[in-house]
């Protein structure tokens, strides 16, 4: 379980990221939070220090702890037929943990199941990298049209010249509803049309039948096998490499899809 200072820091961080606490606003005095039952002086102090280390607040004598202006981030929201792709927030931790903390899902990924702290770190990393200029990672939450809850993720990381690497996962309870196909199709369309990519590739475990079916549905071409490509679940695993080139992409049919 996360220590008390961490929980307080997480809560304040999401209030800052959501804009409930605005730039220039002073955080409550430590003694007021202590009086409000948020923890000891040491706990609140540690939470404020963590926020400072994250670059969310500054502390100075005379001004207390003040929310720092956040770098503007272009909040992407890309609407597909079934899904909406959106930026992650700290509020998505539980939903993300339900995906990357579940062996049923991660057995097919290039990393082992992760715990809550790692889910927080993953989200924070995506939020931070989304601010990089130029942006080289598009790591987005997958939601459906009716609910803002994250039920999966899709990612394209730029690498090389006009090239990107695709990855995705959907919470096991939501498999088989077409979400992954639509999410990948939607981000691929964005990458070819808005980001000007020429090539998108994906490296998939040879036994990952669902993911391979998706590649074929989306019009990807099998290129070959990457031997011992990832070390996951205690052993080396090959990957099958797939790619899709810009001129092969057919947006109206999802590149050969349904
Ligand atoms: C792969 C994954 C993302 C697919 O998510 P999903 O939302 O269930 O996918 P979709 O509903 O869009 O369907 C994918 C296609 O795979 C097919 N499929 C699903 N399971 C299958 C299986 N065991 N064997 C063959 N095909 C399968 C589906 O029938 C569907 O094709 P169809 O529309 O022609 O019927 C999901 O299974 C997952 O998260 N797996 C673990 C993580 C992962 O593998 N990520 C990709 C790493 S490369």
TrEMBL record:
Gene3D superfamilies: 3.40.630.30, Winged helix-like DNA-binding domain superfamily/Winged helix DNA-binding domain. It comes from Streptomyces antimycoticus. Coiled coil: none annotated. GO terms for molecular function: acyltransferase activity, transferring groups other than amino-acyl groups; DNA binding; DNA-binding transcription factor activity. Residues 83-247 form the N-acetyltransferase domain. The keyword Hydrolase does not apply. This is N-acetyltransferase. Keywords: Acyltransferase, DNA-binding, Transcription, Transcription regulation, Transferase. Belongs to the acetyltransferase family. RimJ subfamily. InterPro entries: Acyl_CoA_acyltransferase, GNAT_dom, N-acetyltransferase, Tscrpt_reg_HTH_GntR, WH-like_DNA-bd_sf, WH_DNA-bd_sf. CDD domains: WHTH_GntR (cd07377). Residues 2-70 form the HTH gntR-type domain.
């Amino acid at each position: 379980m996360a220590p008390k200072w961490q929980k307080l820091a997480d809560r304040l961080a999401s209030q800052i990221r959501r804009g409930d606490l605005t730039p220039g606003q002073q955080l409550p005095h430590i003694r007021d939070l202590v009086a409000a039952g948020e923890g000891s002086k040491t706990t609140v102090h540690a939470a404020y220090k963590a926020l400072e280390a994250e670059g969310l607040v500054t502390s100075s004598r005379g001004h207390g702890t003040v929310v720092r202006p956040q770098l503007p981030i272009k909040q992407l929201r890309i609407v597909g037929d079934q899904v909406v792709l959106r930026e992650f927030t700290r509020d998505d931790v539980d939903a993300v943990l339900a995906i990357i903390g579940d062996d049923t899902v991660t057995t097919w990924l290039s990393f082992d199941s992760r715990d809550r702290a790692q889910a927080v770190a993953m989200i924070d990393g995506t939020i931070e990298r989304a601010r990089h200029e130029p942006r080289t990672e598009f790591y987005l939450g997958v939601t459906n049209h009716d609910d803002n809850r994250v039920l999966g993720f899709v990612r394209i990381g730029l690498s090389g010249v006009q090239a990107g690497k695709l990855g995705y996962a959907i919470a096991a309870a939501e498999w088989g509803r077409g979400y992954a196909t639509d999410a990948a199709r939607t981000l691929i369309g964005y990458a070819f049309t808005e980001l000007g990519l020429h090539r998108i590739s994906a490296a998939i475990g040879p036994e990952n039948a669902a993911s391979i079916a998706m590649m074929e549905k989306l019009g990807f071409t099998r290129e070959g096998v990457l031997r011992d490509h990832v070390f996951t679940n205690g052993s080396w695993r090959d990957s099958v490499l797939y790619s899709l080139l810009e001129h092969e992409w057919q947006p109206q049919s999802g590149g050969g899809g349904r």
